[in-house]
Amino acid sequence: MVELAKKYIRFGYRRIHGILTRQEGWQVNVKRVHRLWKQAGLQVRKRKRRRRKPSDTLTLIPLRAKSPNHVWTVDFVYDTLASGRSI
Known about the structure:
Layout: H1 2-7, H2 13-23, H3 30-39
Helix pairs in contact: 2-3
């Protein structure tokens, strides 16, 4: 189980249990896998957050309206297309 956890660092005890039962052919309960997982001190590695680079085309400074109808904003939560599919 420790070897599988090192090989698949993003897998938790449930997915390791699936590998053990389906691919390795072991008859083991998921509760036992969880208990052994905790005793071995194994943890799932979290993904590192990617920082998004601001786009050159989008400005972070809000536009000031120079005249009526110069700046428009749109805010919607739910809408449907003509085909009936929701977006």
